[in-house]
Every structure is written in C-alpha cells, then in structure tokens.
Amino acid sequence: MLKEFLFDVCTNHFVSGFEHINGQILKKYFHPYTDSFEKDKLGSYIFKKSGPGNKKIMLAAHIDEIGLMITRILDGGFLSFTTVGGFNPATLVAQEVTIHGRKRVYGVIGIKPPHVTSEEERKKPHKIKDLFIDTGYSKEELEKLVKIGDIATLNRDPISLQGSLISAKAFDDRACVAVMLETAKELNKISHKSNIYFTATAQEETGTRGAKTSSYKINPDIGIVLDVGFGKTPDMPSDSPELGKGPILAYGGRLNPKLTRKFAEVCKKYNYPLQHEAMPAKTGTDTEALQVSREGIPCILLSIPLRYMHTSVETIDLYDVEITGKAIARFINELDNSDLEEILCF
Amino acid sequence: MFLKELTELSGVSGCEYEVRNYIKDKLALMGCDYYVDKLGNIIAHNKGRKQKTIMVAAHMDEVGLIVSNIDSDGFIKFQAVGGIDPRVLNSKAVYVGDKKIPGIIGSKAIHLMTSDEKEKAMPLDKMYIDIGTSSKAETEKLVSIGDYVSFNSKYVEFGNNLIKAKALDDRTGCSFILELLSMKLDADFYGVFTVMEEVGLRGAETAAYRLEPDLGIVLEGTVCADMPEVDEEDKSTLIGKGAVLSLMDNTTVYDIDLVRSIAKIADDNNIMYQYRKSSAGGNDAGAIHKTKSGAKTAAISVPCRYIHSPVCVASKNDIQSVLELTKLVILENQKGEDHV
Fold first, then answer.
1. Does the interface predicted TM-score (ipTM) exceed 0.85?
2. Contact A251, B88 (CB under 8 A)
3. What is the CATH number of the domain that holds B186?
4. Does some domain include residue B340?
C-alpha cells in the first residue's frame, strides 16, 4: 500500500506554491484513516484523526517538491526556465520534463553532442541559464499552450530496485507523507487519546512557510516533524546514516530534548531500529517554523535516510518508511499513557 | 514502423544481441536471405535488377556503459562505451546486464556539495550505479565486470511530428534498411546491419571486405545542434529540414560527384535535403570507402538533436525524407545509368 501510494503521489506534482492541483490523491489515501480534513490558507493539507482526549499532536511532512518555472518562450519552440527550490543544474541535463500549461506539454532538456563540445567545455557544469526545454513546437504554437510562470516537472517513472529500495523524484518529502499514512493506519489498531493532525505542509522547499501557517491553525501541544536525511553513498563519510536501518532521530537546539529522549526510549522498548544525528542549530526542515509557532511548540525531528537528494532519482528503503510510521504510532500511544506535562516541563 | 521497438532494445557496442535477434526475426518473417558474419554483422540480400554491388549500411550498436568494478558496498563503477559526455549521465535510470537489472546513477545532494564541486562537472570516475543492493556479494550475484549498461529511455512522440528515444544513432538507419528490404524493390542491394561502429567502425570494415561494393550508402542519425545559443558552425544540421548529405567528416571525404548525384535525385523528386555543415564526427563510410581498392560511399542521415544521450530527438518528416531518397538512389543506380 505504501509503495502504491508513493508511486502514485510521486508521478503527480506538488511544486511549491502549486500544491492545490493534485490534492485529491492525498485525500483518497488519507480519508479511510482520518476523521476530518481542512486546509490552511497557503495550501497545507490537514487530516485529523480524533481522539477522546484534548491534547493535540501535529505530524508535519511537506508535500511540496522542487520544480521548474517557465521564464521565456523562445524561437524554435524552446523554453527558458528558473528553479523553484534548490536544484543542482547538472541533474537537469538530458532529462525529460512535463510543462503544466494549458495542457501537459512534453519536453526534453538536451545539450550539444560531444562531437561539437570541446574537452574544456565538458569539464564545466551547466548553469540554469545554459539549459533550454525543447518542446518540438514552433514559438507561435507554443505560446498558445504555455505561459510564463507555468510550472514544469521532471518525468521519472518510479523504479523498484533490489530488495525494498525504490527510486523516484520527490521522495523528499513524500516518503514522510507515506510515514504519516502508515502511522494513521497503525493508529486504527493501537489506541490513542490525543487528536492527531497529519499535516502535509506546503512550501517547505521555498522556506518552511506552510509549516508556519498550518501549525498556527492547529495550535498543537507537540510537533513531530518528518523529513528526509542524507543516506550514505560512496561520496559521503563512512559514519553517515544508512538506508534500511530505521529513521534518523535528531538532537539539537531546535528540538525538545526530553521529547526526543522519550522517542528513543520507545524505539528501544519496542525494538524499532533507530539512527542518531546531532543537529546543533539549523535543521533545514519544517522544524524551523514549527518550533517558534505561536508561543512555541516542543518538537522532535525524524528523518528517513535518502540518497541523491533533490534529484529525479531520490532513493529510499520502503522498510524505513514502514518502520518509522509504526514507531510513531507506538510513540503516540506511549505519550498518551504518560504525563505529557511532566515530559515537557523544564 | 520498426523504429519504436528498435530504440527500446539494448545494443551497446559489442553487445548487439537483442538488436541482432530482433532484425533476424524480421528478416525471416519477410523471407529475406541473410547471414551473420564472424564479427556479428547481419548481411541481408535484396535480389533484383543489378548493375553494380550496392552496400547499404547502418549500425546496430549504440553508445552506453560497461561495468568496470563493484565496490565494497555493492555500488557499480563503469566506463563509457563510445563518445559520451559524462554530464548527460547525472541522475539517470539505466539497465545493467542481460537481465536488465534496473539501476540509477545519482548525484551528491546539492546541500552537501562544496563550492569547488559545484564548479566542476562530475567526472566519470566519480560516478557509480546504484541497484539497491547493500554489499559487494549481493551485487555480484546479479552483475559482473564486463556487463553492459544501457539507458532506460522510452520512445516518445511529441511536438510537431518529433520523436524522442535513446539510440536514434543508429536505429533510424536499422529501421530504414528493414523498410527498404520489406519493399522488395526490383533493385539488387545488400542491407548490412553492422556492429561496433561507435568503438571504431569495426563491423563495417569486415562486411565491406566481404561484399566489395561498387557503391556504399551509409544511413545514419547525425549531429544536430540547432538549439539556442549554439554557434552557427556547431549546429551542423537543422531538424525538420530534410535528409542530410555528408560532404566531409573525420573519417571520410565523400565522393563529390556521388553526393551531387544524390542531391539531384532529391531535387528532381522534391525531397527535402540539406548538407552537413560540420566535419566533426564520422561513421561507417570511413571503413567502407577504404575497403580493398576503394568504394565510392555516401552518407544519408537524419538530424538528431542530443545525439549520444538518453534523449535523442528526431523529426518523422526527416526520417521519411531519408527513406524516400535512399530508395530512389538504389533504384536509380540499378537502372544502369551511370551515376557513380
């Protein structure tokens, strides 16, 4: 089910600022496990699973993804573009794209062939301004289909690799939206007293904006922020977190220390694998906004290890998604059976 | 009609099995005589009226990668087969080996790149393929050094009659020869599907030696760089402007009388054509025209944008022009009128 959800949600786009277009997909998957739905005014999706108690726990995983925005329509049916969120231009070379114009327009971002490219040129990475989308239309035809400001996304059919590894675009942060789905499902089996708000936040990639507005709207007692972390590859330090070894729990100044320890205890108690990471200050996640929402929200941050972040071949282990979803459900259950005030008291 | 299927087969130089088997099946279905030579070229014979020996050649192989090592964590190192700009490999899906194990070539997260890394293109020796295994032993069960790797890229039609696929260089040529053979023309010619063009015109050399043609016609997908901000002299050809006639490249100075005679056939029959305005690159003509005491050879090509990448682009109109022109050139040359 998680894989089906991820493949479905990752072949549709939710570029920052355009999260409203494909919302029905989220609703389809979350409605069976939640009781009510609302949105904040920036486009964050909030699915509430009600409990008998009065505490509010907010889970936050951003639904938005990085994308391209059309800036110029050129002769010969080529398009110039800028980026929405942080792209490495090198990852855009020789990619297929869809421009979400009046209709879906197919395009490719090609480069000069090696035959007419000097050795010197090949050593230099492309900049965004050197790249063009080739649509195969004339300028006049294209002007009827595409407008400046339209969004384009990379085409990538999700791929099943060996074992439970999968690869696609936008697992940052849909992997964690899938974690929330797993938690929602699991909470049908494990009791909970708190009201749980599964929040697919908008505009994280452009500055954690949906987290700010949705947390204001929800006004939760605690926040569980879910994002992706850097999974180990050959070009990273040997002690980096690895795929398939559970979520990465963050420790640092922007996170609540006691709540963080509590999560680690629950994982230990129920034998859920856990990896650990120190994040002294900035986390680059929705925590930045959540922690200082209203009068402050005690937060924990869990990351799903992911390889090749911000490329069209982001790679995760489904096992990590599933285990994290289950561990969070257990954590919620344990919190509901503890004195939350005492945990949060300094 | 063959092109979609042909481009979706893997056939990196030296590993043309899938393409060869596909073509053999098609030849058998059309009842065409053929044999496979010692290097793996397919030599098919269309029997008909004959004034001279004509060899029409297209190469089956495509550029790709070959597995060179498997590291301790199971990641796969590779080298390029044929001319590939490493920059087209970043963040791509590939198939590894005969079993077509799905893999990806990733890229370090931009968040982790140093400013120095951002200013340099990732060299080939820093890249690796990830198939999702977690140890060397696990990878070795599925992949061996020497396995070939091809791009995962589907055939797509888009824009104004354009197509995108991998390996348009030179599955366009292979599809032309299959089309020509299926026409059962009353004009004798050998349709030759060569191997290992991308690694030095190997197959064409032995096939030409065997056939000793009076006339060689190479059918190709060729360089086209008619994109914004490319210098005029680098554009080479223009997409949608018809069949490309080569004058000179790195491997051949084409017989000018032959080239002009082909241009005249195009003129007389209102077939759109253009001259190739770059001498970069080369093709099987380089081997064919030097065989034994020499053979006059022409190259008729389809302009292909982004050639040697997973996303080659060509125009169906140009494809039609090349097919039509080649057919007429064959017919004209077997009429007995001396165009050579």
1. yes
2. no
3. 3.40.630.10
4. no
Encode pLDDT of A25-35 as tens digits: 999 999 999 99
pLDDT for B232: 82
Q: Which of A199-203, A340-344, B24-28, B261-265 has the lowest mean pLDDT?
A: A340-344
pTM recorded for the entire structure: 0.94
Both structure tokens of B292: 């034994």
Question: Phi, psi (5° rounding) for residue B260?
Answer: -65, -35
- Based on the fold, state whether residues B110 and B14 are members of the same structural domain: no
Q: How far apart are CA A212 and CA A219, in angstroms?
A: 10
Residues of A in contact with B83 (CB under 8 A): 114-115
| Domain extent at residue B117 | 64-151
Question: Smallest Cβ distance to B305: which of A86, A114, A134?
Answer: A134
- What is the sign of the dihedral through the CA atoms of B110, B112, B118 and B122? negative
Give A269 to chain B, closest Cα distance, Å: 27
Q: Are residues B127 and B202 in the same domain?
A: no
Instruction: Tell me whether residue A135 is in a domain.
Output: yes
Region of residue B32 (phi > 0: left; psi between -120 and 50: alpha; otherwise: beta) = beta
Q: Verify whether the Cβ–Cβ distance A122 to B132 is below 8 Å.
A: no
The domain containing residue A45 runs over which residues? 2-65+169-344
Count of structural domains within chain B = 2
**Can you read off the two tokens belonging to residue A264?**
């680690």
User: Does the residue B158 lie in any domain?
Assistant: no
- Range of weakest confidence among B4-8, B73-77, B232-236: B232-236
3-class secondary structure per residue, B299-310 = EEEEEEECCCCC
**B interface test, pick of A7, A78, A81, A112 with most B CB neighbours within 10 Å:** A112
Question: Does residue B117 sit in the same domain as residue B217?
Answer: no
Taking an 8 Å cut-off on Cβ atoms, the answer to whether B313 and A134 are in contact is yes
- Specify if B339 maps to a domain: no
pLDDT band at B336 (very low <50, low <70, confident <90, very high): low
* pLDDT tens per residue, range A148-174: 999 999 999 999 999 999 999 999 999
* pLDDT at residue B338, as a whole number: 46
Q: Which of B75, B111, B227 is the closest to A132 by Cβ?
A: B227
